[in-house]
Specification:
2 domains; 6% helix; 50% strand
Length: 154
């Protein structure tokens, strides 16, 4: 069914009766009058407006790996709140390798690290692991604890 509108009416005409210039037009009028007569009265075909485009959603960051690691005598003694970390190894004083449970698809991830003492940095990273280096005044040290969060935007 083609819907029509008129400058004197708001929106499009519903199938119900309406009044224009003092004349009431019932719904059956649309079935008995041809399109040329409707247009002659000043009506135009109603074309609904295009819907507003939906703005794209910003990427949502999510933690893909995290953990809190307790160090004692150069060894990882305890792992707490771990998720997404498959293995963790001390390599040398202040150097640790953390392997992901599942390899990352690429290097587009962010790392957030903290240590109980010294300064902790990511010294190397790949899709399979990250290497952490903890130093104090440039000298490698073993902190009593460090934590890591790996974040990706999806």
């Amino acid at each position: 069914m083609t819907r029509y509108t008129h400058p004197d009416l708001a929106g499009f005409l519903s199938p119900a009766a309406f009044t224009l210039d003092g004349i009431q037009y019932p719904r059956v009028w649309w079935k008995t009058v041809d399109a040329q007569d409707i247009i002659a009265l000043g009506f135009v075909e109603y074309v609904p407006p295009e819907p507003e485009p939906v703005p794209p959603s910003p990427p949502v960051p999510s933690i893909v790996a995290s953990g809190v690691f307790t160090i004692s005598n150069g060894w990882i003694e305890a792992v707490g709140a771990a998720s997404g970390i498959g293995m963790a190894f001390p390599i040398d004083v202040g150097i640790y390798w953390l392997f992901f449970s599942d390899a990352q698809p690429d290097l587009s991830y962010a790392t957030y690290v903290s240590a109980s003492s010294g300064q902790i940095n990511i010294s190397s990273r790949s899709t399979d692991y990250v290497e952490l280096c903890v130093t104090d005044g440039g000298v490698p040290v073993d902190p009593s604890e460090f934590s890591i969060n790996i974040v990706r935007s999806k």
